[in-house]
Specification:
Layout: E1 2-5, H1 37-40, H2 55-58, E2 88-91, E3 122-123, H3 135-143, E4 147-152, H4 169-177, H5 189-199, E5 203-206, H6 214-233, E6 239-243, H7 263-266, E7 276-278, H8 285-297, E8 305-310, H9 311-314, H10 321-325, E9 330-334, H11 341-344, H12 353-369, H13 389-392, E10 413-415, E11 421-422, E12 425-427, E13 430-433, E14 437-438, E15 452-454, E16 470-474, E17 484-488, E18 491-505, E19 510-517, E20 525-531, E21 534-542, E22 553-558, E23 568-580, E24 585-594, E25 606-615, E26 619-627, E27 646-653, E28 659-664, E29 668-675, E30 684-692, E31 703-704, E32 708-709, E33 719-721, E34 726-727, E35 732-736, E36 744-751, E37 757-764, E38 766-769, E39 775-782, E40 788-798, E41 807-813, E42 817-819, E43 824-831, E44 835-837, E45 839-843, E46 848-851, E47 861-871, E48 879-885, H14 893-896, E49 899-903, E50 907-908, E51 915-916, E52 920-925, E53 939-944, E54 950-957, E55 962-967, E56 970-976, E57 998-1002, E58 1012-1021, H15 1027-1033, E59 1046-1050, E60 1060-1061, E61 1073-1079, E62 1090-1093, E63 1100-1101, E64 1110-1112, E65 1115-1119, ...
Parallel strand pairs: 2-3, 2-9, 3-4, 4-5, 5-6, 6-7, 7-8, 8-9, 34-40, 42-69
Antiparallel strand pairs: 1-69, 10-24, 11-14, 12-13, 15-18, 16-17, 17-24, 18-23, 19-22, 19-24, 20-21, 20-23, 25-26, 26-29, 27-28, 27-30, 30-31, 30-32, 33-35, 35-38, 36-37, 36-39, 39-40, 41-43, 43-67, 44-64, 45-58, 45-63, 46-57, 46-61, 47-54, 47-58, 48-49, 48-57, 49-52, 50-51, 52-53, 54-55, 55-56, 58-59, ...
Helix pairs in contact: 5-6
Length: about 1250
């Protein structure tokens, strides 16, 4: 049997963008239309669904976690100077760049998994419309005692008048809600708060920068006051979050503090209207003092007035931090419109999902715990910090202002340090679904302090901070979910104070830890607790050494072993680490305190509904709804009422093991890409659910559906080529990657620059192709519904001189039969594909190529390059390909600059309504101000680029402000843009006209992902290129033939030092390119950033159409199973065999272009080297008894190591033993198998010394 594998061929997969911040899969959970709220409110009651929302989808908005009360009995805190009464509101979005996903479950890793809940009191949830808060957010907020809101985002200076009949949606909603009965009472206030309680919505927020009338404001004030009263009647706490813009009379009066102009909207004691009044950003000490006094006169807490921070504009910069420190005023952060700027700005180390997530964890800890990531050792007040992590390391942290709070006040307490997302889903320490995921409501209790770590004297300051163990949440491992706690690094002694608690226990209760020692097995750690009546007296117990390095170990102890013998209250739980070295790393996967006498009986859930959304060849998408208790009317069941913590979502493809795909506290689940291992032949699947009790151990019986047929209804349209590099007049195959894909109605191969059709194939899913002309070719596929899709440049026919992927035609042997111990030689027939290719430069985000600004001066220019994206991971505004800017400009010009070329996500032209698919290229210059949008006249309409495919791009500009774009040698866009200006001509004070704006290839930033791939042949021209000049530039130039006008020319064939590339252009050899990263960046403020050189890799092949200096060399790898003493010389391999039977060979050839493997089985028959019972010289040996029953005794005159091969009468190997024996020693060997004749072959030193017949009777 011949087996040929062309590993390199499948790399030419035409996959669309693999977005990082936004999922690539559709959003299959339908939400209500806020604009219609006024119309459907009367029909919407608790237990029914808003208009347009199914019962299943509504479950994703119903919080099943009962709000927990925070501990108020204990007053200890990490930072003694923090004000325990001060509150914090995070009035930011928790969303993705499209503002569609909120905290809904999805199957990408990147997402806002905010986790410093202990420091905030309100999450304002800026992009959530009124009444629709995703349970992903409300569940985790309520678990941590945090109120969660939603926002009526009224535009600036809009008019809100309740008596208006021709009104916008915001007015209509307010008008509906504030309707009155004939007696003057409010008709809808009770219903509103009932709906809020049912869904778990605590607050309504208003972006109040509108104008109104005194009458309207009086009505709204009275209505919101009534909502507070009605909420108390149903045991709910209603909140109003109000931006302090619109005053009591309907005028806009910013920056006047809390005073008599807004006191009615604030409300008196027992007549509360606003619970969080958010001051505009220009407050100062006098306004704060006035606000305190006004609140006092209203008999209200001044902590209900919040000093606002615009973190989009200012980051953490605020001259009045010290004034706030001394005032009884709370803290509020706003920023911005689609994502929290804390999350959005986490691009310090690049824009990949893992880089963002790691930077976001660090950024949260620096903002809340302070620059030392230890709230007990925060820096002094610092008023000039940006959102960059490098700058935040000087920041004092919110821990200097507010104290960390906890709701861990009831048993059992279990945490697994799961942040709510992961690179895979793990359950009980094992990967059960190997897929990226995000589901915020699975987030565990996070450490109360991040990280309160002290030394042996229980203190921490500048003198010992650096000697303490390091603590991090890591995605590298997990016991459950996607993350765990890591304590690592060298320390003599460190006390890690993890959780503030108030747990009533006695000596019979148990504390447990599931942990893993990554290097060695010594734990070097102790568990400790402190009791509420002795907070600094620590009760400790040693954590035993792990059973095995790198494997989870469980430790459990009764609290009596820690010296707790009577009823007590645990107030703190933590870990002591002692005597570790730098390579120490302790992973903690679960920490728990349980009462063994406390039992749970989680209700077995009943599956109510399920839907197979999509079925593909190898996976499916589905939703499932279930209930642990029947609900009727307005009744809602919290999970704790049915002894449930969360639900395991189970799945099984027929004849495959059961899987836990995910977990959720919601009563519905959503899964993408559930695997169909044998989906080509068997599409039967079933779905299940199982409830897990609050102890994390007890589980209900699972409930399963019957096996269902998952119809194939979602094609994978990726196309693969049988060869990664194609030469003229060479036959290759084109096919769909999807084995179940139906035939395409038509395939059309078109020469890219001329659009000349060279081949048409009808009604096929694959075809062979041969092209006789070098160059790029597009492939247009028309499906059976008439929809045409074009993959640009997917086929490139390159010259023979640049080499190709190797090929193996055949493997032969020099003999068909060979005696054991004799030579046999295999010979391969190959085409090594060697040649001389151009070198490419790897660009990996956050790295970018920096080219001196002096190479492009004025308005006449062209930029050209070859590029191949390995993957595309768009942020809101796409992926940076080319930019020209300086970090010295003020915002927003520092983010955009003189020009920017981006690969865009899908975007809609709101004027023409045309939807531009993902991966079209846009070109903008200074003067374009709608930064979120491209200029739709300067975008590569209908020309999307494909990951894994080389493309050539040229963007041109001339003195007449004519902009032109060429893709693969063809003009794809041209427009006159009169507003295009040079920075030198700008009158904008934020633009530093005397600062050079360098040119960059790659590099990301806020709203923009960085490029990941390979570039080649970068050209900077001082003129506008014509179409013919573009086509000539695509071929590159010899160093001696560089034309005039080509100022910057970078081929990457040579490198100076680690990262410098010479300029071969006419602009001058002094203007070299560097590979750099932007250091100390993060957020929109780059004033403290700079560029740092990075090592550059130009060892990879560049564009295959250009000859260069990289030698394509081919490596031979032979795999010769059972062979002895192989001698390999390239195409030939000479070997010997000891065992009889048929043998063959496998050869793998690889070079820089690709790899191919050929297996030839049964090429040679190996026969016995001697007759039966013939003894070779030098070995005295006996076997007895013979015949035997079950085993035979062997004795050798000469000691050593022998291989004993037992073959049946047909010469097939049935067992093989390795035996080491001393001279004269008798060894008993069992022979498995039926009665009959066997042949014992004895091998020593790779040679067969003896074969004898044995008879089993």
């Amino acid at each position: 049997m011949n087996k040929i594998t062309l590993l390199a061929c499948a790399l030419m997969s035409c996959t669309l963008a693999n977005a990082q911040r936004t999922p690539t899969h559709p959003l299959d959970i339908q939400d209500a239309n806020y604009d219609q709220l006024a119309n459907y409110f009367d029909r919407w009651t608790p237990g029914t669904q808003p208009q347009g929302v199914s019962r299943m989808d509504d479950e994703f908005f119903i919080s099943r976690v009962k709000p927990r009360k925070r501990i108020t009995e204990l007053n200890y805190q990490a930072s003694p100077d923090a004000d325990p009464e001060r509150k914090m509101c995070l009035w930011v979005p928790l969303d993705d760049p499209t503002s569609k996903w909120k905290a809904l479950p999805r199957y990408c890793f990147e997402g806002d998994n905010f986790s410093l809940w202990s420091y905030i009191d309100i999450h304002g949830n800026w992009t959530a419309p009124w009444m629709r808060v995703t349970a992903g957010l409300s569940d985790v907020a309520h678990k941590n005692g945090v109120k969660v809101g939603c926002v009526m985002s009224i535009p600036w200076a809009a008019r809100i008048v309740l008596t208006s009949w021709n009104a916008a949606s915001h007015t209509l909603v307010l008008k509906k809600l504030a309707e009155k009965n004939r007696d003057g009472s409010f008709k809808n206030s009770l219903k509103l708060v009932k709906l809020m309680k049912y869904y778990g919505v605590d607050g309504l927020g208003v972006n109040s920068e509108f104008t109104s009338t005194p009458e309207t404001m009086s009505t709204l004030i009275a209505f919101f006051e009534d909502c507070h009263k009605k909420a108390k009647e149903i045991d709910w706490e209603f909140q109003l979050h109000w931006y302090d813009g619109t005053n009591d009379n309907g005028a806009i009066t910013f920056d006047r503090g809390l005073n008599w102009h807004n006191s009615k909207m604030f409300g008196r004691k027992d007549h509360e209207v606003t619970d969080m009044m958010f001051a505009n950003y220009n407050w100062y000490d006098g306004l704060l003092s006035t606000s305190e006094q006004t609140a006092k006169e209203l008999e209200r807490s001044s902590y209900d007035y919040y000093a606002g921070f615009d973190i989009q504009k200012d980051g953490m910069k605020k001259a009045n931090w010290r004034s706030l420190k001394n005032r009884k005023i709370s803290v509020g952060f706003w920023g911005a419109h689609s994502q929290s700027l804390i999350h959005q700005s986490a691009t310090d180390n690049g824009t990949s999902d893992i880089a963002i997530q790691k930077a976001y964890l660090l950024k949260q800890e620096l903002i809340f715990s302070g620059g030392n990531r230890n709230p007990a050792a925060h820096p002094d007040i610092y008023t000039n910090s940006t959102l960059a992590n490098a700058s935040l390391k000087q920041f004092h942290g919110l821990a200097a202002f507010v104290t960390a709070k906890s709701t861990i006040n009831e048993m059992p307490f279990v945490t697994r340090f799961n942040l709510g997302n992961g690179l895979s889903f793990r359950n009980e320490g094992k990967v059960t679904f190997n897929h990226k995921w995000y589901n915020l409501n699975t987030q565990d209790f996070m450490p109360t302090w991040r990280w309160w770590i002290t030394g042996e004297n229980d203190q921490v300051d500048a003198s010992n901070y650096s000697s303490l163990v390091k603590a991090d949440l890591t995605f590298d491992d997990a016991y459950f979910g996607g993350s765990c706690l890591s304590l690592h690094g060298q320390t003599a002694f460190s006390r890690v104070k993890l959780f503030k608690t108030l747990l009533s226990v006695d000596g019979k209760d148990k504390i447990s830890l599931i942990y893993k020692v990554m290097n060695g097995t010594e734990s070097h750690a102790k568990l400790f607790v402190a009791l509420s009546n002795a907070l600094t007296t620590y009760k400790e117990i040693d954590i035993p050494n792990a059973t095995t390095q790198g494997e989870w170990t469980t430790f459990e102890a009764e609290l009596s072993q820690l010296g707790i013998t009577s009823s007590s209250q645990i107030a703190m739980i933590g870990v002591v680490v002692k005597g570790t070295t730098e390579d120490y790393n302790l992973h903690i996967g679960e920490l728990a305190v349980r009462n063994p006498s406390q039992t749970f009986q989680p209700a077995k859930p009943e599956i109510k509904d399920f839907e197979i959304i999509r079925g593909r060849a190898k996976n499916i998408d589905f939703k499932i709804r279930y209930a642990s208790k029947e609900e009727t009317g307005e009744t809602k069941t919290y999970n704790e009422e049915v002894d449930t913590w969360y639900y395991e979502i189970l799945y099984q493809a027929e004849n495959e093991p059961e899987q836990v795909l995910t977990a959720t506290p919601s009563w519905a689940a959503y899964v993408i890409d559930a695997p169909l291992v044998n989906g080509i032949t068997n599409r039967k699947v079933r779905f299940g659910v199982r409830a897990v009790a609050p102890d994390g151990v007890t589980k209900s019986q699972p409930t399963w559906t019957d096996f269902q047929t998952a119809d194939y209804n979602d094609t994978n349209d990726n196309v693969v080529l049988s060869r990664p590099v194609i030469k003229a007049n060479e036959t290759f195959n084109v096919r769909f990657e999807d084995e179940l894909h139906p035939n395409a109605k038509e395939w059309k191969v078109v020469q890219a620059s001329t659009q000349r059709t060279v081949k048409v194939v009808q009604n096929a899913k694959a075809f062979d192709l041969e092209l006789d002309e070098e160059g790029l070719y597009d492939l247009t596929i028309t499906d059976n519904k008439g929809k045409a899709t074009t993959i640009r440049g997917i086929i490139q026919v390159s010259p023979q001189s640049t080499g190709a992927a190797p090929q193996i035609t055949d493997i032969t042997a020099d003999k068909a039969s060979v005696e054991g111990g004799k030579d046999v030689t295999y010979t391969a027939t190959t085409n090594e594909g060697e040649g001389h290719a151009s070198r490419g430069l790897i660009i990996e985000d956050p790295k970018m190529l920096q080219i001196p600004a002096a190479l492009q001066v004025g308005k006449n220019y062209s930029y050209a390059l070859w590029f191949k994206a390995n993957k595309l991971a768009h942020d809101k505004q796409g992926t940076n390909l080319i930019s020209k800017n300086t970090i010295k400009d003020g915002w927003p010009h520092n983010n955009w600059g003189d020009l920017w070329v981006q690969i865009r996500p899908q975007v809609t032209d709101n004027y023409s309504k045309k939807v531009h698919p993902a991966n079209e290229i846009s070109f903008n210059t200074m003067g374009w101000t709608r930064h979120d949008d491209p200029n739709f006249d300067m975008i590569s309409t209908d020309y999307s680029i494909t990951p894994g495919v080389w493309n050539h791009l040229v963007v041109c500009h001339n003195e007449g402000n004519i902009q032109t774009m060429y893709l693969n040698g063809r003009k794809v866009a041209q427009v006159a843009f009169p507003n295009s200006i040079r920075r030198e001509d700008s009158r904008d004070g934020r633009i530093q006209i005397y600062q050079p704006a360098d040119i960059f290839i790659g590099g990301g930033g806020v709203y923009k992902s960085g490029f990941n791939g390979v570039i080649d042949e970068v050209q900077i021209w001082n003129k506008e290129l014509s179409e013919s000049e573009v086509q000539r530039a695509m071929k590159g130039f010899k160093e001696s033939e560089v034309p005039e006008g080509l100022q910057g020319y970078f081929t990457f064939e040579t490198k100076e030092g680690d990262n410098i590339f010479p300029n071969l252009g006419k602009g001058g050899a002094d203007y070299k390119a560097h590979l750099v990263v932007m250091a100390n960046s993060g957020g929109e403020d780059t004033s403290k950033a700079g560029y740092q050189d990075m090592p550059a890799d130009n060892s990879v092949v560049g564009n295959p159409g250009i000859e260069g200096s990289l030698n394509i060399t081919t490596t031979y790898t032979w795999k010769l199973e059972g062979a002895n003493n192989p001698t390999v010389e390239g195409k030939t391999a000479t070997v010997q065999y000891s065992n009889m039977g048929k043998v063959g060979a496998t050869l793998t050839l690889s070079n820089q272009w690709g790899e191919t493997t050929l297996t030839k089985d049964n090429l040679v028959e190996v026969t016995s080297s001697t007759g039966i019972n013939e003894v070779e010289s030098g070995v005295a040996f006996e076997a007895f008894p013979n015949p035997f029953v079950e085993s035979v005794n062997l004795r050798f005159a000469e000691g050593g190591t022998y291989t004993l091969n037992v073959l049946n009468a047909n010469g097939m190997l049935v067992q093989s033993n390795l035996l080491t024996t001393a001279a004269g020693e008798v060894t008993n060997v069992s022979v498995t198998g039926a009665k009959g004749l066997y042949i014992l072959q004895i091998v020593k030193g790779g040679k067969t010394y003896k074969t004898i017949k044995l008879v089993k009777k």
